Amino acid sequence: MLVYYLRTMARIKIEKNTSRKEVIVSKAASLFREKGFKAASMRDLAEAVGVEAASLYNHIKSKTELLHELCFGVANRFMHHMDEVESKKTNSIAKVEELVRFHINEMINHYEEVYVSDREWKHLSDPYLSNFQNQRRMYRKRFAAIIEAGIRNKEIKAIDAPTAVLIILHAIGGIESWHRSTQKIDAAALTSNMITILVGGLKND
Amino acid sequence: MLVYYLRTMARIKIEKNTSRKEVIVSKAASLFREKGFKAASMRDLAEAVGVEAASLYNHIKSKTELLHELCFGVANRFMHHMDEVESKKTNSIAKVEELVRFHINEMINHYEEVYVSDREWKHLSDPYLSNFQNQRRMYRKRFAAIIEAGIRNKEIKAIDAPTAVLIILHAIGGIESWHRSTQKIDAAALTSNMITILVGGLKND
DNA sequence: AATCATTGCTAACACATGTTAGTATATTAT
DNA sequence: ATAATATACTAACATGTGTTAGCAATGATT
Q1: What is the CATH number of the domain that holds A26?
Q2: Among A33, A60, A87, where does a domain finish?
Q3: What residues make up the domain containing A35?
Q4: Looking at the domain assignment, is residue B196 inside a domain?
Q5: CATH number, domain with residue B124
Q6: What is the pTM of this model?
Q7: Which residues from B are below 8 Å from A119, CB to CB?
Q8: Looking at the 3D structure of chain B, how many domains does it have?
Q9: Integer angstrom CA distances of residue B146 from B90, B96, B107, B141
Q10: Residue A124 in contact with residue A132, Cβ under 8 Å?
Q11: With CB atoms 3.0 to 4.6 Å apart as the test, which of A201, B103, B139, B154 could cross-link to B197 if both were Cys?
């Protein structure tokens, strides 16, 4: 018996106000997070999107472009938030706490992108690579400056500010483990625990 | 004019009491750290060692074996140290501080291996992968148990112990940034700063 | 219904990868 | 010196990679 299958061509499904490119970038985020940028192949990505590998190139320029989009998307959000925080008239501890809260929220709500931006930026190529590294350095400098101001007016313990920044940023990166954990406490509890330990450890009392 | 070069065959240079395999594993550590496991090729490694790619296989079984050696080498050191700490009769804060100190020392003195083991273990393949993940889980559980004991006898603030472990371990991972930093404070100062913030943030006072 | 722009498909490319076979050259032991 | 072992080399393999060319199907516009 002969059976004819009427196959219709695959199509990337989109919702209102999202381009097909955005769908691809988003799937790329979770794939890069899972396997790492180098280990994730365009054929893997194509399968996740539900299409053949070559078809992706109707929407994107290259694999690296996907990494650009992810890294700079995240970097921009953090930079804008830093602008906001700096312009506020609150004390240093409050500023630090707000920065920490923002980081935690980003890590909880935009897990994949933030994680990828954090771990895989090394694979950017050079006009972008230096740019990204600069942004990172700047962000940390500004963060450290806030802590230093707090040390000067005795709000914060006399510690090495760059070290504190380093600790805080990496500690938050640990939410990765929480995210994958089976028995996770709820997000609010996690946040308040982290604030207690991280900000509490800075306070001069 | 005709010039004859008398080339002698390359050879992996070794020092007293180190096998050629150890040299390879060590070079692999810094290469994997720099580029990531997937992005580092056996030809890259061969060049770093000063030999042709195929020659490496006189000493090792496969690329993955290099990752095994690195990951389990590190994991074993941490596990043994945990055994030691648990068997001591000191209070909880002292135990936590000793664990933290050990981590920092390992990160400072065996930077490349620890870093690789931490970031690249995902690329292990399966009998080894599960084994490694189990060891990791166990280590964290035991660390959390020590903190929980400290909470029960009021040495330590009433926080979520797994979260605290997560923060501590990842914060120490931040030494990576310090390591690459141009203007680094000295190791002792770094250690004392980290202890102040991390252990200080736990103490009940 | 006809036209045009999107978006998909198949096939293929050039290249890099981990690894093996077979052989030559060092080093060590007899 | 000779034999045996360890270590290196060249050449090649099979496979996986990102990407392009050319064409077919679909959707939107007129």
Answers
A1: 1.10.10.60
A2: A60
A3: 18-60
A4: yes
A5: 1.10.357.10
A6: 0.92
A7: 119
A8: 2
A9: 11, 7, 22, 9
A10: yes
A11: A201
For residues B94 and B187, membership in a common domain is answered with yes
Q: Contacts of residue B172 in chain A, CB cutoff 8 Å?
A: 170
Per-residue pLDDT of chain B (205 residues; tens, 9 = 90+): 444 555 677 787 777 788 899 999 999 999 999 999 999 999 999 999 999 999 999 999 999 999 999 999 999 999 999 999 999 999 999 999 999 999 999 998 999 999 999 999 999 998 999 999 999 999 999 999 999 999 999 999 888 899 899 989 999 988 888 888 777 788 888 888 888 888 877 777 6
Residues B84 and B151 in one domain: yes
| Mutation to test the A interface, candidates B35, B100, B120, B170, most A Cβ within 10 Å | B170
Residue B19 forms contact with A (CB below 8 Å): no
Asked whether residue B6 is domain-assigned, the answer is no
- Chain C bases closer than 7 A to any CB of the protein: 6-12, 16-22, 25-27
Question: What span, in angstroms and rounded, lies between the C-alpha atoms of A137 and A134?
Answer: 5
In a domain, A188, yes or no: yes
